[in-house]
Amino acid sequence: MLRKFLAFRILFRKDKDLLISLQEILGFYPKNLRFYKIAFTHRSASFKENGIRVNNERLEFLGDSILDAVISDFLYHRYPNAKEGFMTEMRSKIVNGEKLKELARLIRLNDFIVQKGNTPKGSITKIHEDAFEALIGAIYLDQGYYKTYKFIISKILKKYIDFEDLEDLNLNYKSQLIEWAQKIKKPVIFVSKDHPDEIKCFSSEVVFDYKTIGIGKGHSKKEAEQNAAKEAISFLLHSF
Amino acid sequence: MLRKFLAFRILFRKDKDLLISLQEILGFYPKNLRFYKIAFTHRSASFKENGIRVNNERLEFLGDSILDAVISDFLYHRYPNAKEGFMTEMRSKIVNGEKLKELARLIRLNDFIVQKGNTPKGSITKIHEDAFEALIGAIYLDQGYYKTYKFIISKILKKYIDFEDLEDLNLNYKSQLIEWAQKIKKPVIFVSKDHPDEIKCFSSEVVFDYKTIGIGKGHSKKEAEQNAAKEAISFLLHSF
Fold this sequence. Notes:
The first copy, chain A, is mainly alpha-helical. Chain A is 60% helix and 12% strand.
């Protein structure tokens, strides 16, 4: 009986500690700790509940799409005159693996994640990225859409994202394309020309498998190549 | 003066008609018709507002991600024990071009869309699919997340989606892969074997460019090929 009571006390203290640490990140006290415990449980540390293996993969699925929705709304209002293409690009600059890993590191998710196996201490991996998305899913289930919205805007975007930097950041489409071509062991060739009589005086074609799959123009060779590579990637992705 | 008054009356009557028709689809009266008018405006019929070209592309960007979020939440609760992979597949069976076109047709979006140029009467195209997503964006801005949620669940999913049918529907990965390979003019080969001594007694390998890019097993040759094709598509997509 005493042992049970002590175990309960320890459990209770652990939950209290988790509650307090979470409050520091979230800015509010969770209502239902269970969602957050699941969000931090990597597949390698799955536990059973009523015969079902539980880990954060389902919450990651949910959180991923909630994060997308909130960021889309935010960008829609932040850039009232921007075109859809610009907003899509900005969103993918925020919601990509590397950025999410960085965000996971910044809010110290590392301290919460439960996993088995050897991960070098302090290293930030896909596990952290997934846990970040799962955390968004947990907040959504615990607090609803608008509190999640508020959390993402005030505790993540406004705190850690420099939008002006991000606007300037050029995603490197050319290197993405070359990397992909190397993986499938096919050459991809950039054929660039200059047209001294035109305003955008450089053009570039991406040739893959004897076929032009992207064309771009630009004020510099680099810009033309990037635009061509972007079109080529879009062609390859949309071919499915 | 009289002319102005009559023009105002006609405009007012048009808005009233739109309001009534929308109420029939939505189940509520819109607060701000402007969002809906934009949602139905195809790029070809863009209009200017304070010097900015306005059409439904921005709302489509927003609506697309709101739709995803709502459907993810719905699936999360409808299938409390399903794995993330199953939910992702179910979502893509609902939120794909063909299905959205069908939904646009079922809620008679055709009557609302404003476009220029020749589209054969009654034909349902990408324009309708985009307008459907833009409508979701309009409802979200006009009514907020939870009313949009309610609309999608009660007026779309429960009315037009047969989930049991959808569960059984096998996305044809093999034909998707072959179609893609034909576009880039490279052969893709399925090498299948049977293993009479195993439970899943068929296996299949997808060979593309002298390299195995997907392996699948199954109770039939068809199932093995589908699984292999699915893995191959995932490989190609994730290589970016």
